[in-house]
């Protein structure tokens, strides 16, 4: 047995081997040590190898999925090794023969299909990057839904695209000497290397043609050699990991970068589009706008927010559909009620395709198609806009399959086919008969007993059972001659004679005995056969079922956007080919919801770019809301092009080709980058890439270095955005000197966030208006943050001196430094001791919880008397 284990393990050196032993998957040697630590399970020993104990641990087969999930999340890959025959079959080859075993599946982050291993509302992409003669392409697939896409892509764009897709695993060529591995790792995906042969475009075309059973790929479009190579590598990897059981993949869709808004990784992080800075979904734009009610709709929403469209017709069609759903509120709510009952068709279909499904997946297809038919009936008499009308067509045409599944399945099937009991009574006559035998065997035998009593005329005749003879007919000795004589001896065959009884058998009774004893197993066999036939019927029309699933997801997203627009008072944006970004009463969707929970209002603000000015230079103190203002306008543009209404009173958005955000600061110690270096790298990416239809938001450029260095960098950056990039931008800064540039640069306007100062305190109004701030109020903000009063007062003194030195050419600054060295501030004088009064002493003695109402009233008079005493 251990020789077999080592032989199989040698084929999968990079994976943990789950070696099936009866009801357990067992792991040995280093695999056992690693798994025991990762899973927090006991590490034991089993036998010896080369004179040393063999470490061993195991997990139950019935709960293996939970352990697999933990291992995958901790970066492991698992080879699942099953028994390919029963122990009885192995013994036929010899008493010491080892049961045949083989790896049936390699479990990796990008090849998961089980419901318990996946997030229902997120895609799980497996991607592949290929390069042929300097040209590159990225392909990606979600085998849990069948989605398959490819696009031509230069290596320099790989990082941003991986940030958009967030794949779990990326396949690259093992001989590639570029830094692909670093790019993939930075995106958070697992790197998988395949030999160069897997990326051969000729071999890839052959694999793809075999997969889709076509003679040529031209039927799906004109794919470049790098695109075919990338797709071929994915198919090769799926053949390796799935051991020939390839998933149901949809026809590959060719995407073009020019059709979607380009958003780099830093911008996605800064804007928290699908994931908050904290790492979770909560607090992200996705979480705040998600009103979808189906898993498919949730996944579609994430795709739309990650890839806003740049195609005017597409954006307008999506907005038109949402507008219709907003206006038809009753219809929209009824539709959402029906959609709530829709199961995850895509993932049920995928599990059936790779033979990891069960009766519940059959029921999910049935229930989903039933809801599709109901929804189709709801919308058939309604004048729908283009997208909803096309979706409605895809909901029909499934009557034959739906009727089949309706007749075949019970309402609530079990999870596993091996549990049986999922085929409805009356669907299969043979199954009904076997079930009757299994469940009503005693009644069947009683009926046979009555039949034999009538045949023989012996009312005392009994049909009995024991472990030696099985079922038999028993009569008393007085009736023995009758049973042994003609014509009864032709039917009843003598089996045994005892002191007082004689026992017989009949051919029908023996056959019935066999049927009863085998009825349970036979019922399972029949149900498994029927399961396979139902699965085959579904897979035969899998493309049509996938279309229905896509249609339901589209309807869910549209009505979800409509529900959001009605509930949050959002408006339909005007989107066109102009350079406008004119927003009235704009709000940040995430911040507004957070403030609402705290019972505080959100202050809406206007933005006007593209008419008189392309760039707003925004000044004002920290804590006043500059970063929120920058982000909300970027998110409004993103939402508009994703096809959603937006959080504003009105919005006019000229199509944005690229969205760049440089907001916030953090270091990257793992790559040897300081906070300032990260800031400069991200700023450089913007200045080198932004075109004239880009939208750029920049916050505090240059603050990570010396004042004059930072000022000069911010100055030059602003000029470059204006003169070279020619893009729309919101540029927040504390360098008030930059506000003078509005006189030099024709398309730059100043704006500021209003504050009020009252008795030395600063009050944030969070209102953005035209003009420039005169100061930053940093000392006041420091006081709000809780700095010791001595530090705040010292800062005021130093600030006054520095501002005076600025006015006097720097001499006062020098005098200040000479006269008041750093940290020389004297501590505040200790307060003089105050003599405690009689009133203070009495109040200190009072325990309010111990007072009765009368005692409290008397105490008030007593305290008033003490207060009136002189001194």
UniProtKB/TrEMBL annotation:
Q: Name one GO cellular component term.
A: cytosol
Domain of life from the UniProt record: Bacteria
Q: Which residues form the DNA mismatch repair proteins mutS family domain?
A: 694-710
Record-linked InterPro entries? DNA_mismatch_repair_MutS (IPR005748), DNA_mismatch_repair_MutS-lik_N (IPR007695), DNA_mismatch_repair_MutS/MSH (IPR017261), DNA_mismatch_repair_MutS_C (IPR000432), DNA_mismatch_repair_MutS_clamp (IPR007861), DNA_mismatch_repair_MutS_core (IPR007696), DNA_mismatch_repair_MutS_N (IPR016151), DNA_mismatch_repair_MutS_sf (IPR036187)
Positions that bind ATP: 620-627
Q: Name one GO molecular function term.
A: ATP-dependent DNA damage sensor activity
- UniProt entry tagged with the keyword Nucleotide-binding: yes
Q: Which keywords, in A-to-Z order, does the entry hold?
A: ATP-binding, DNA damage, DNA repair, DNA-binding, Nucleotide-binding
Q: State one Pfam family annotation.
A: MutS_III
* Protein's GO biological process: mismatch repair
Indicate the family of this protein.
Belongs to the DNA mismatch repair MutS family.
Q: What is the documented function of this protein? A: This protein is involved in the repair of mismatches in DNA. It is possible that it carries out the mismatch recognition step. This protein has a weak ATPase activity.
HAMAP family on file: MutS
Protein's UniProt name: DNA mismatch repair protein MutS
Q: Which gene encodes it?
A: mutS
């Amino acid at each position: 047995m251990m020789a077999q284990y080592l032989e199989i393990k040698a084929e999968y050196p990079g994976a943990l081997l789950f070696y099936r032993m009866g009801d357990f998957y067992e792991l040995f040697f280093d695999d056992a040590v690693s798994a025991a630590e990762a899973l927090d399970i006991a590490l034991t020993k089993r036998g010896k190898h080369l004179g040393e104990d063999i470490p061993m641990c195991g997990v139950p087969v019935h709960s293996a999925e939970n352990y697999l999930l933990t291992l995958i999340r901790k970066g492991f890959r698992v080879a699942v090794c099953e028994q390919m025959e029963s122990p009885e079959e192995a013994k036929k080859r010899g008493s010491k023969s080892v049961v045949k075993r083989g790896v049936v599946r390699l479990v990796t982050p990008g090849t998961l299909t089980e419901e318990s291993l996946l997030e229902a509302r997120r895609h799980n992409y497996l991607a592949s990057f290929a390069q042929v003669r300097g040209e590159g392409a990225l392909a990606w697939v979600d085998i849990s839904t069948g989605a398959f896409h490819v696009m031509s892509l230069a290596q320099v764009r790989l990082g941003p695209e991986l940030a958009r897709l967030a794949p779990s695993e990326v396949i690259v060529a093992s001989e590639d000497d570029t830094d692909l591995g670093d790019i993939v790792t930075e995106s958070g995906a697992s790197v998988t290397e395949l030999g160069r042969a897997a990326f051969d475009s000729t071999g890839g075309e052959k694999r793809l043609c075999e997969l889709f059973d076509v003679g040529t790929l031209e039927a799906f479009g004109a794919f470049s050699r790098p695109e075919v190579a990338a797709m071929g590598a994915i198919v090769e990897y799926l053949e390796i990991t799935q051991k020939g059981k390839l998933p149901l993949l949809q026809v590959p869709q060719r995407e073009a970068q020019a059709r979607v808004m380009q958003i780099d990784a830093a911008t996605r992080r800064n804007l928290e589009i699908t994931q908050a800075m904290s790492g979770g979904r909560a607090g992200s734009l996705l979480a705040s706008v998600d009103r979808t009610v189906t898993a498919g709709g949730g996944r579609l929403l994430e795709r739309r927010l990650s890839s806003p469209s740049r195609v005017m017709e597409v954006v307008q069609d999506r907005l038109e559909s949402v507008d219709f759903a907003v206006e038809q509120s009753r219809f929209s709510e009824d539709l959402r009620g029906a959609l709530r009952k829709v199961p995850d068709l895509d993932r049920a279909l995928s599990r059936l395709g790779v033979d990891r499904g069960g009766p519940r997946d059959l029921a999910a297809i049935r229930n989903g198609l039933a809801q599709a038919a109901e929804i189709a009936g709801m919308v058939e008499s309604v004048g729908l806009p283009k997208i909803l009308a096309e979706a409605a067509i895809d909901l029909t045409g499934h009557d034959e399959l739906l009727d089949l599944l309706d007749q075949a399945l019970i309402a609530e099937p079990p999870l596993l086919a091996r549990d049986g009991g999922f085929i409805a009574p009356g669907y299969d006559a043979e199954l009904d008969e076997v079930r009757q035998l299994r469940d009503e065997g005693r009644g069947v035998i009683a009926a046979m007993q009555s039949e034999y009593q009538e045949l023989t005329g012996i009312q005392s005749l009994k049909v009995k059972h024991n472990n030696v003879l099985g079922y038999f007919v028993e009569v008393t000795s007085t009736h023995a001659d009758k049973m042994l004589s003609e014509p009864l001896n032709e039917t009843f065959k003598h089996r045994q004679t005892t002191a007082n009884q004689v026992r017989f058998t009949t051919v029908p009774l023996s056959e019935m005995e066999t049927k009863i004893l085998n009825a349970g197993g036979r019922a399972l066999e029949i149900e498994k056969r029927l399961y396979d036939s139902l699965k085959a019927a579904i897979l035969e029309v899998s493309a049509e079922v996938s279309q229905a699933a896509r249609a339901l997801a589209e309807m869910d997203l549209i009505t979800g956007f409509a529900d959001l627009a009605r509930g949050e008072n959002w408006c339909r944006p005007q989107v066109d080919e102009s350079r406008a970004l004119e927003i009235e009463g704009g709000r940040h969707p995430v911040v507004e919801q957070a403030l609402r929970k705290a019972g505080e209002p959100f202050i809406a603000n206007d933005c006007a770019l593209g008419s008189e000015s392309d760039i707003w230079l925004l000044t004002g103190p920290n804590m006043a809301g500059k970063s929120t203002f920058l982000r909300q306008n970027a998110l409004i543009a993103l939402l508009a092009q994703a096809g959603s209404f937006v959080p504003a009173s009105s919005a006019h958005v000229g199509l944005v080709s690229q969205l760049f955000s440089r907001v916030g600061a953090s270091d990257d110690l793992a790559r040897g980058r300081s906070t300032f270096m990260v800031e400069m790298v991200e700023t450089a990416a913007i200045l080198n890439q932004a075109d004239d239809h880009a939208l750029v938001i920049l916050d505090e450029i240059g603050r990570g270095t010396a004042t004059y260095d930072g000022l000069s960098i911010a100055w030059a950056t602003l000029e470059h955005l204006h003169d070279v990039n020619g893009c729309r931008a919101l540029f927040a800064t504390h360098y008030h000197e930059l506000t003078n540039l509005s006189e030099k640069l024709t398309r730059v306007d100043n704006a500021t966030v209003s504050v009020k100062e009252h008795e030395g305190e600063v009050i944030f109004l969070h209102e953005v208006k035209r003009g420039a701030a005169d100061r930053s109020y940093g000392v006041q903000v420091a006081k709000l943050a809780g700095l010791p009063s001595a530090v705040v007062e010292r800062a005021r003194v130093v600030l006054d001196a520095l501002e005076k030195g600025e006015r006097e050419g720097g001499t006062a600054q020098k005098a200040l430094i000479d006269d008041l060295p750093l940290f020389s501030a004297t501590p505040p004088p200790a307060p003089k001791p105050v003599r405690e009064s009689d009133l203070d002493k009495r109040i200190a003695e009072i325990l309010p919880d111990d007072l009765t109402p009368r005692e409290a009233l008397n105490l008030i008079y007593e305290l008033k008397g003490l207060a009136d005493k002189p001194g």
